[in-house]
Specification:
Elements lengths: L7 H4 L10 H6 L6 E2 L2 H14 L7 H15 L5 H12 L3 H14 L3 H9 L10 H15 L2 E2 L15 H6 L5
Parallel strand pairs: 1-2
Helix pairs in contact: 3-4, 4-5, 4-6, 4-8, 5-6
Length: about 170
């Protein structure tokens, strides 16, 4: 599992003891770690995306969900490597995946205001890059779900899809 305790949205949640109350304990703390499966993690990420105004029917939402899952699970996570893995497993190229994720984030006008309330911190409205969205959703996951898995293996990487753009439209020239 990736140690996301250095996530800037989690670091800001440190509560001094003098401000500690029953209300903060019940509603403002990080959830207890629990063992789960990869499907549980994906389902919880989809729940977060749906609750924060994302349109689940868009490809970008599916790609974003996979990217956040890799951010949470992979100990050797790099954004570019994860995007390449997602593109390969879906039969697309990196630019298409990046474009779909960016469009999904841009279409969602409620994301940042809702995330501010979920995290209990102020987030700048300009935080709309892929890296920012993954970091914010990862922090929300850690606070509200905090699942752990024993494996870092993604089953979707085992059977990569065919890139039909390369195979058909470009007549296999590349």
């Amino acid at each position: 599992m990736h140690n996301i305790s250095d996530n800037i949205y989690l670091v800001n949640r440190v509560n001094p003891l003098k401000h500690y109350s029953l209300n903060r304990y019940l509603h403002n703390e990080v959830a207890i770690e629990r063992a789960a499966t990869m499907n549980d993690i994906r389902l919880s990420i989809y729940n977060i995306l749906m609750a924060h105004g994302f349109h689940l029917q868009l490809n970008g939402c599916d790609y974003l969900s996979s990217l956040v899952a890799r951010y949470i699970v992979k100990s050797d996570y790099t954004e570019q490597g994860a995007i390449s893995d997602i593109a390969t497993s879906n039969g697309a190229n990196n630019n298409f995946v990046i474009g779909c994720i960016n469009a999904s984030i841009a279409r969602n006008k409620k994301f940042i205001p809702t995330a501010c309330k979920s995290l209990g911190v102020e987030i700048s409205p300009e935080k709309t890059s892929i890296t920012d969205a993954v970091t914010i959703i990862g922090a929300i996951f850690k606070i509200y779900f905090n699942y752990t898995v024993d494996t870092e293996h993604f089953a979707e990487d085992d059977i990569p899809a065919i890139n039909f753009s390369r195979a058909i439209l470009d007549h296999g020239k590349r």
